[in-house]
């Protein structure tokens, strides 16, 4: 491990000690938050509703109970009923023995701090973009498990596009998801932004937090390579801003069949302005500075690098890197007008499953950080809220993968079957309408032919109007 990696691991490992002490310091407040967000823990009824629209009733309307103390929050629809049936049958949500690392901080730290174990075999491709920049695509090509199941009819594996967090760190859970998806018959590919995870920075421009322009070109290339395969997308943590921005901007032209976000950051501006717990803030800020320091010489003509590396918060770092540029400075408000992941959310036309936990130490309590009105009003967005899981954790006893991975792949399988059934029903309806319409037209022609009042002039006029 390089020296900076050791320093980062030691700094973030100190969070484990904080994770052991913080629950005792905040136990009373956390119990109150759980009582508001998960009323079943206090013996309330599933169909209870509270008038007034305050925090106590935000999760009472339109939520369905599931195994393991989870809740599905969504707008009722045929697609929601399909997802609900799938989740109720899911073995991944069944409560089991809680592992020793069930605390939210330990779940989060094991996800971010522990070294990555031997993962899948990756084949890297560099994609040159329209402005001569580079992004990287890591195709998962092995190991192939025996008895792998094909997810699509005709033997074509569905492509699974995986978007890591915005810091560019490839975590254990991302690699575990790729291995599990490969076993289930998917063809996973990991998208890396400019300058992330060994991708060279050939132009002095990094990708802003929620700018999907590079992702659009990557999806176009993936569609070129696999034109007949279904495309699914999964994002992790802060990387969800990129996926949601892409789905909102592209709408029904996104080429994506279904999407999932693990611990998404939905109110990104408030998340930056409020800041993370100080140890997390320092750890992620150090990681960002180390990653960008490799390109300090290339960026010094566009960014004030001295001010950048003196940043004391993630907000200051983000603002210096993308707002206070030397060539085209913009305000903090303008930056989020362009990068807010929910700016075009009404245009999204793809089912999106968001998996969040009530004890997420990075995002905070769900009644303050989740826009529940989005899930209540938009039929394409579904929120699976669990009691435990930390941030992007959702770990179980080894060697089982994170239960969020199982739920996501089961959801994609259910979506495939649902849309296949819908297409079959629409095809039958079109054939039936065409058959009935043909009979009506043939009967009209026969009546016109045998009618004694018909004349050559009338028939000629009818043919002219038909061919115009």
What's a quick, concise take on this entry?
A ten-stranded mixed β-sheet has the order 1-2-10-9-8-7-5-6-4-3, with helices on both faces. The relative contact order is 0.14.
Report Rg: 26 Å
Q: Give, in order, the helices and strands.
A: HHEEHHEEEHEHEHEHHHHHHEHHEHH
Termini Cα gap: 75 Å
Strand order across the largest sheet? 1-2-10-9-8-7-5-6-4-3
Q: Any overview of this molecule?
A:
- There is one protein chain.
- This protein is of the alpha/beta class and 468 residues long.
- The protein is built from 17 helices and 10 strands.
- Strands 1-2-10-9-8-7-5-6-4-3 form a 10-stranded mixed sheet, with helices on both faces.
- Helix 1 runs antiparallel to helix 9.
- The C terminus is likely disordered.
How do the helices and strands line up, and which of them pair or pack?
Layout: H1 3-25, H2 27-37, E1 63-65, E2 71-73, H3 78-89, H4 104-112, E3 121-128, E4 134-142, E5 159-163, H5 172-183, E6 187-192, H6 213-225, E7 231-236, H7 240-250, E8 258-262, H8 268-274, H9 278-293, H10 296-299, H11 305-309, H12 314-322, H13 332-339, E9 352-357, H14 366-369, H15 372-377, E10 381-386, H16 403-450, H17 456-467
Helix pairs in contact: 1-4, 1-9, 3-16
List keywords for this structure.
alpha/beta; ten-stranded mixed sheet; 17 helices; 45% helix
